[in-house]
Design goal:
It is built from six helices and eight strands. It is an alpha+beta fold.
Length: 273
């Protein structure tokens, strides 16, 4: 089992990020879907009385999605995975500002694969020591990794200038570009604390797959949050009612694209919220 906590600073308020993240998930899902692959939304509904973390809300939004990822996993996984086994279920409880997402492969790997993503969003500079209330034993296992959306390396094949925080300036919010040690002077400023726990019980592949999964998660967090910032003029000023309408429209679009569109080459994105 590998436990890592990713800390991602963003020049926005916690309230703004709630809208920004949901909007960006909807947009990014469209870039992942087509040719029988991508995202299928099975449920998107309100829930009540389900405590997730002490001190956080017990009601929120529940989503259940299926990711069809035949072309997006490493070759060594495809080589041993039967056809149709690369379908992963994502169940997410969004009790914002806390969110929990659980990934599984119930039809093939069952209890041998486990990935939990817990996110807490706080208006600070990423310096809170234990927001997820981990036990001393878990803290000893946890590795903290900071993700800088402006300065961290992006692979050439995934770089797009329109998603570069060093080049983007928001006309609506008058923020950006993010240059140098931007987080030292940014106002507002918040941090996404993302705790990722991965366990893969498959003899001979456990360490390799767990390491690959964490590398993929870090790349996802970096690329996705670069988009969140650079899409600011698209989501800035939207309400949660606007977001629910966009999500409904996105579900219809995804169902159509998954059945009739071409396979997309964009990197995968996970909901989390």
């Amino acid at each position: 089992m590998i436990i890592k906590e990713y800390r991602i600073l963003l020049p926005m308020t916690v309230e703004e990020y709630q809208v920004a993240q949901l909007y960006s998930v909807a947009q990014a899902s469209k870039n992942e879907t087509g040719g029988g692959e991508g995202v299928e939304i099975l449920k998107n509904e309100h829930y009540d009385n389900y405590p997730l973390l002490e001190g956080q809300p017990t009601s929120g939004q529940y989503t259940h999605k299926v990711y069809y990822l035949e072309s997006k996993v490493p070759a060594f996984v495809k080589a041993i995975a039967p056809k149709g086994s690369l379908e992963f279920h994502e169940k997410a409880w969004n009790a914002y500002p806390y969110c929990r997402t659980e990934f599984s492969n119930p039809d093939y790997m069952k209890d041998n694969f486990y990935l939990r993503l817990e996110s807490l969003h706080i208006a600070d500079g990423g310096n809170s020591p234990n927001v997820h209330k981990l036990s001393p034993e878990m803290l000893r296992k946890r590795e903290v990794i900071y993700v800088d959306i402006a300065n961290d390396h992006v692979e050439r094949k995934e770089y797009k200038p329109e998603w570069d925080p060093q080049k983007f300036h928001s006309q609506k919010a008058d923020r950006g570009p993010l240059i140098g040690n931007w987080a030292e002077t940014a106002t507002p400023l918040m941090c996404c604390y993302k705790l990722v726990t991965i366990e893969f019980k498959w003899f001979g592949l456990q360490n390799k797959v767990e390491a690959w999964a964490h590398k993929a998660e870090r790349k996802l967090f970096l690329n996705f949050h670069r988009q969140v910032f650079c899409w600011m003029d698209q989501w800035y000023g939207l309400t949660m009612a606007d977001i629910r309408r966009i999500e409904d429209e996105t579900k219809r679009d995804l169902d159509e694209k998954r059945h009739n569109g071409a396979v997309q080459s964009q990197y995968a994105t996970s909901g989390d919220e």
